[in-house]
Design a protein that fits this description.
The protein has nine helices and no strands. The chain is mainly alpha-helical and 175 residues long.
C-alpha cells in the first residue's frame, strides 16, 4: 500500500487529513482481502484483478455498514483512501501519468457497480452467489464448494459487521 504521507504544508501548519483516522480500517479491509483462504478454498483468482475484486467485496460490505450507521462522510473518506492506494499501486506497476486517470476511473466505476450489486444481495433484494459469479469470478463458474466458501464467509462477515458499533468499525475492528 502506498498511501501518500502528509504534505510538508500539512505538517508545518499542523493540519491533519481526516482520512488518517480511517487508516486502521482501510488496512484491515486490505488485510482481510489478502487472506489466503479466499484464493485457496474460495478459488478467487490469485491475480492483481482477483485481489482487487476481493478487496472490493470486503470494502463494499464496510462501506454499506458505515452508511447504515450514519457515517456517510467516513464512507467517502474510506473510498478516497482506496482510490489513493489504487493510484499508488498503478504507479508502482509503471503505469504513467497519462493513463493512470483512465485506470482509476475504471476502478471507481467497478467499485460503484459492485457496491450496488453487493448492496442488493446483502440487503435482501439480490442473489449474492450471482453477484459473486459476475463480479468476483468475472463470469467464470467456480466450483460449488469454492462459491459456498466465499459466499458463506462474506455472509458471516456481514452479520458480524452489523453487530459492531460505529466506533468499533471506524477503528478497524472487522469482527
Amino acid at each position: 500500500m502506498s498511501i501518500p504521507a502528509p504534505s510538508f504544508l500539512q505538517r508545518l501548519f499542523g493540519r491533519r487529513d481526516p482520512k488518517e483516522g480511517l487508516m486502521p480500517l482501510y488496512h484491515a479491509v486490505v488485510a482481510e482481502g489478502r487472506q489466503p483462504h479466499w484464493y485457496a478454498k474460495g478459488a478467487v483468482p490469485d491475480t492483481l484483478d482477483g485481489r482487487f475484486d476481493m478487496i472490493v467485496a470486503i470494502l463494499a460490505q464496510v462501506l454499506i455498514r458505515l452508511e447504515q450507521q450514519g457515517a456517510k462522510q467516513e464512507s467517502v473518506w474510506l473510498t478516497e483512501l482506496f482510490v489513493d492506494d489504487m493510484d499508488g499501486q498503478l504507479r508502482q506497476e509503471g503505469i504513467g501519468d497519462v493513463v493512470v486517470g483512465k485506470h482509476i476511473g475504471r476502478m471507481v466505476s467497478a467499485l460503484g457497480g459492485r457496491l450496488a450489486a453487493y448492496r442488493a444481495a446483502l440487503e435482501g433484494d439480490g442473489d449474492l452467489g450471482e453477484a459473486l459469479r459476475r463480479n468476483l469470478y468475472r463470469g467464470a463458474e467456480p466450483s460449488t464448494d469454492a462459491l459456498a466458501h466465499v459466499e458463506g464467509t462474506l455472509r458471516e462477515r456481514w452479520i458480524r459487521l452489523g453487530c459492531l458499533s460505529r466506533d468499533a468499525l471506524l477503528t478497524g475492528d472487522l469482527g
